[in-house]
Amino acid sequence: MEIIIQYGAVFMILAIVFGFYMSWGIGANDVANAMGTSVGSGAITIKQAVIIAAVFEFAGAFIAGGSVTRTIRKGIIDPGQVVDSPEILLFGMLAALLAAAIWLMIASWQGWPVSTTHTIVGGLVGFAVVGISLSAVNWGKIGQIVASWLISPLLGGLFAYLLMISIQKLILRTQEPFLNAKKWGPMYVFLVGWIVSLVTLFKGLKHLHLDFSPLTSFFISIGFGLLMAYIGKRMIDRIEVDEAADLEFAYASVEKAFAPMMIFTACAMAFAHGSNDVANGIGPLAAVISLVQSGGEVTQKAAMPLWVLVLGGAGIVTGLVTLGYRVMRTIGTKITSLTPTRGYCATLAAATTVVLASKTGLPVSTTHIAVGAVLGVGLTSGMAAVDLKVVRDIVTSWVITLPAGAVMAMLFFFALKGMFGVSCPC
User: Which of 37, 336, 383, 407 lies 20 to 30 Å from 220 when distance is taken between CA atoms?
Assistant: First the structure.
């Protein structure tokens, strides 16, 4: 505890640097993954995606990112065993942050869409095993996370597949696809507003003390969905048939009608992601700040200062601008060919799955869900429409993520402990 008081300023600087680095990784990978379907479908450009993410991710993190976040990620470890040695927890959180940030950088450079949550969990497990004890890790929770590698993409893929089939039945495979796109388009825009507002109401606004009941959230989201449907209808009504483009591609005009829906989805999903995942991703940073400011008091929760959320938002935007294009390219073009209709289905399916997971407590990954959703859309055109080599590489990166984070966190934990001359209580 004396070390925390003595080197408090040093630990704060390290936490800020590592926290920004981690946020940079979230932007380069997690946010790029969320924007990939919109860019890959051609609905928005990479430059527009960066602007949308810069505004709405930052707004989500700053406005609805939360004043309190769990610092021990999802109950993965029990800090009770280091109450008398808080510096061990501090070193562990710093090690987990640095390990997760480096792995996200490696994955982003390779274009692998990996789970930020699972990366930080791997870091926490690694430090806990060597810094506390095996019993400090909630292995049941780890088992659930491993199961989510299968559950997440299956759920996302199923919803995307069903949505794409509905568009094919109601619009694409009809006598008048463009007229039916105008007819059914507002309903699909309603679904975007309704589903994404549910994500925000269920998860993102609780920390602003706007904790609505499920029924109230349901009706508010319906109202928001109707408003979006009205705005969407006005935008869709302005689109005219492009006969020249239809000669080259029969559904060109239909795809033009779906492009505005992708803009709605991109903005709303960026805000929802910022309000939820940013605070979670920089949870260890909040833990370090809390430990330093309290002089070593170990707690399961810690205040999340606004400047930390600002730091997280700035890091995310920087990561998306500098390296995000690699993951966006994987999600948007390499797995399967995306059009606005397909991109819409993939994005909405991912949002729907996240809503269900948030209410049922399923330990799913938004990244895995998004990849599964893109796969589901591709499979509506048959297996030949999916690049199985890219899928194999992505799945391999998922399996590696937890152990990679764990091993690096172990090494960084020992390095930090040695630098400050601290012994483990284990």
Answer: 37
